[in-house]
């Protein structure tokens, strides 16, 4: 019996990228369906009635919402290849803690780097760099956040890497100057097939930001 | 059940009136795990707390054999992964995903909306009440035909949703606003009665009178209107 896997997604979403990567890591064939977030489809509204947000993973007709919950789900349903979470309970807890930290902290400050002006933007940039530095010290000299193998925390963060050049351009700052180890980590991850297939080009994101600003009514 | 060494040490840094701390006590008690509770003064944080949770500097922190874990939902899953008796999360991956989703809904949306009810007045409060009720409807629907969110017995979402049963609904008494009236939320009310019949819950929730006094004192301190 073949699995039917559908992903409702939006190409620049760093959250959608997590789920794409997880599915690719597990070699799961899926039907990617681009969504128009300003004209939401009936299937999106039906499958995520609580938030009406992407990504939504639909597996054999049943929806799973929230990107990190989807990553964990994918790891549980397809355990055989490329485990995404460690098997040791304490290591798992650490991974989930940092995934949750990334969820709570990165997006809000990152958004200010392109979505705000003046003092608000400067404060956003400062906070964003502080958060990246915390993550960089967590990475240390390891290849990936989990150590030798690519996993959950890397997946939680790497989507933002595709937006780094856009943050730098619109925020007028250099992430590499502040967090060189994190940039090196990003480049390593981008070489992975699952990541290369799932992240859009930085150039495409840079072109997209002005359009996004218009949509949000930001000058 | 796996072999446990005699030197196994479980310590919980918590606070008696915190829903996030109490839910950890529910989980440990459900699993029969002995633990040492260390009451923390969150207005004057101990160096131990700052050392064990440098990122957020908040309770609860579980310390197992010297290793700290923070964030209550992460701690709950750690407890379930480590002590395998009386499982808290369901086995089926889709049900697990739903449980995690509802837990997040409670902590990140319902809790925030409920705090706005407490913190606002007039029209803003009315709007906050509406927003909270809209979110609670998802919990209401989930309970149809079930004794608990976990089915026949307490599960992950029940433990997390004690925040609704014993914090949000207790605050109603003080606010003079029925955020969760029985006419709109009969299933939630039925579920609260089921919770109150459960020995672990009875043991682990803050005693009502002291709890109401504490909430009232906090509201007065923050100059919030109480009934």
UniProtKB/TrEMBL annotation, chain A:
Q: Where in the cell is it found?
A: Cytoplasm, Cytosol
**Catalytic reaction equation(s):** RX + glutathione = an S-substituted glutathione + a halide anion + H(+)
Which UniProt keyword terms apply here? Cytoplasm, Detoxification, Transferase
Q: Does the keyword Metal-binding apply?
A: no
Broadest EC class assigned to this enzyme: transferase
Pfam families with a match to the protein in the record: GST_C_2, GST_N
Alphabetical list of InterPro entries matching this protein: Glutathione-S-Trfase_C-like, Glutathione-S-Trfase_C_sf, Glutathione_S-Trfase, Glutathione_S-Trfase_N, GST_C_Tau, Omega/Tau-like, Thioredoxin-like_sf
Domain of life assignment: Eukaryota
Give the GST C-terminal domain ranges.
Answer: 88-216
Coarsely, its chief localization is: cytoplasm
Q: Per the UniProt record, which EC number(s) apply here?
A: 2.5.1.18
On whether Cytoplasm is a keyword of this UniProt record, the answer is yes
Task: Give start and end of each GST N-terminal domain.
Answer: 3-82
Q: Tell me, what does this protein do in biology? A: Is involved in the conjugation of reduced glutathione to a wide number of exogenous and endogenous hydrophobic electrophiles.
Q: Which family does it belong to?
A: Belongs to the GST superfamily. Tau family.
Q: What protein is this chain from?
A: Glutathione S-transferase
Organism from which the protein derives: Camelina sativa
UniProtKB/TrEMBL annotation, chain B:
Name this polypeptide is given: glutathione transferase
| PROSITE patterns linked | GST_CTER, GST_NTER
Residue intervals of the GST N-terminal domain: 8-87
Recorded source organism is Camelina sativa (False flax)
The broad enzyme category this protein falls into is: transferase
Q: What is its EC number?
A: 2.5.1.18
Q: Does the keyword DNA-binding apply?
A: no
Which key words tag this protein in UniProt? Cytoplasm, Detoxification, Transferase
Question: Member of which family?
Answer: Belongs to the GST superfamily. Tau family.
Per UniProt, residues of the GST C-terminal domain are: 92-215
Q: Which reaction does it catalyse?
A: RX + glutathione = an S-substituted glutathione + a halide anion + H(+)
Q: What is its main location?
A: cytoplasm
Q: Where in the cell is it found?
A: Cytoplasm, Cytosol
Source taxonomy: Eukaryota, Viridiplantae, Streptophyta, Embryophyta, Tracheophyta
Q: Which Gene3D superfamilies match?
A: 1.20.1050.10, Glutaredoxin
Task: Establish whether keyword Glycoprotein is in the entry.
Answer: no
A Pfam family annotated for this UniProt entry: GST_N
């Amino acid at each position: 019996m073949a699995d039917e896997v559908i992903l409702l997604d939006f190409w620049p979403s760093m959250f959608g990228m997590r789920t794409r990567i997880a599915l690719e890591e597990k070699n799961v064939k899926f039907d990617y369906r681009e969504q128009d977030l300003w004209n939401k489809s009936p299937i999106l509204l039906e499958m995520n009635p609580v938030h009406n947000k992407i990504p939504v993973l639909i597996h054999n007709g049943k929806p799973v919402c929230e990107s990190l919950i989807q990553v964990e789900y994918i790891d549980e349903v397809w355990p055989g290849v490329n485990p995404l979470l460690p098997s040791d309970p304490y290591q798992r807890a650490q991974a989930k803690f940092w995934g949750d930290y990334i969820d709570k902290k990165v997006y809000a400050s990152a958004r200010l780097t392109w979505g705000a002006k003046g003092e608000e933007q400067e404060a956003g940039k400062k906070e964003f760099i502080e958060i990246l530095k915390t993550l960089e010290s967590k990475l240390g000299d390891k290849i990936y956040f989990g150590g030798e193998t690519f996993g959950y925390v890397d997946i939680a963060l790497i989507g933002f890497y595709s937006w780094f050049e856009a943050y730098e351009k619109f925020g007028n700052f250099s992430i590499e100057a502040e967090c060189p180890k994190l940039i090196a980590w990003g480049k390593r991850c981008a070489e992975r097939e699952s990541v290369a297939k799932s992240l859009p080009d930085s150039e495409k994101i840079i072109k997209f930001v002005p359009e996004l600003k218009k949509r949000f009514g930001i000058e | 059940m796996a072999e446990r060494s005699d030197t196994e040490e479980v310590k919980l840094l918590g606070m008696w009136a915190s829903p996030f701390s109490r839910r950890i006590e529910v989980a440990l008690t459900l699993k029969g795990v002995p633990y040492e509770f260390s009451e923390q003064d969150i207005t004057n944080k101990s160096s131990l707390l700052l050392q064990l949770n440098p990122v957020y500097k908040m309770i609860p922190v579980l310390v197992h054999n010297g290793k700290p874990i923070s964030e209550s939902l992460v701690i709950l899953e750690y407890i379930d992964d480590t002590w395998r008796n009386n499982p808290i999360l369901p086995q089926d991956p889709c049900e697990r995903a739903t449980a995690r989703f509802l837990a997040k809904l409670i902590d990140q949306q319902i809790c925030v909306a409920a705090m706005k009810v407490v913190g606002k007045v007039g029209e803003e409060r009315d709007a906050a009440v509406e927003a909270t009720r809209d979110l609670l409807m998802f919990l209401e629907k989930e309970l149809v035909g079930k004794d608990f969110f976990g089915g026949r017995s307490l599960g992950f979402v029940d433990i997390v949703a004690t925040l609704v049963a014993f914090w949000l609904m207790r605050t109603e008494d003080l606010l003079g606003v029925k955020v969760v009236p029985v006419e709109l939320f009969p299933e939630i009310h039925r579920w609260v009665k089921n919770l109150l019949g459960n020995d672990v819950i009875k043991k682990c929730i803050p005693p009502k009178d002291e709890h109401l006094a504490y909430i009232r004192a906090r509201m007065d301190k923050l100059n919030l209107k109480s009934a």
